[in-house]
Structure of Virginiamycin A acetyltransferase:
Amino acid sequence: MGFVSRATWLLKRQLLKRKFKGFSAGIRSFADSQVCFSDHVRMMGRTVLSDVKIGRCTTFVDAVVCRGVVGSFCSIGPGTTIGGLGAHPLNMISTNPVFYSTLRQCGMTFSDADYFTEMKSVVLGNDVWVGANALILGGVTVGHGAVIAAGAVVTKDVPDYSVVGGVPAKVIKYRFTAEEIALLLKLQWWALPDSVLSANAQLFRSGDVQALSSALG
């Protein structure tokens, strides 16, 4: 990161605090000009964001997130890397980009066009918790309410309200029954105004999906 980019970000931090209610960004954090913020987003520690659209009430702690969408009410744990790593083809003779990319990563190229998508977007739904030191590769979609265990390497899409872990990450369990998950997805509580969520906070703590659905549905 250059001095100009750093200085620009430090100035922009102050402007974002005025524009978005509850916005906070640590002095060591950084976000480029392609990041779209919402209210109550917090960037803690050395969080770095690039080309990301973020929903409200989402927190990042020492995380690196590149190219994608992060929903509302997400908790992104320390040491996580989400997107931005690029990919290499396994079905070509060589995995070196000199043969399929015009970006000249090696300072040269044998390719007359781009034959492989190296950088893919990541989509995190709403109310997603990503544990410490997890890695989510480009092209992955993480469903609403999902939990990514600490240290997991996520290479495939993650179902709604599932808990995944391991290398590569696999489904360990689901947080609720299939019927309850359907109710939560229909409810889409994360889109409701803060006043409604605050008035029903006790129901969120109870874990009673049926009661919450009755109150908000």
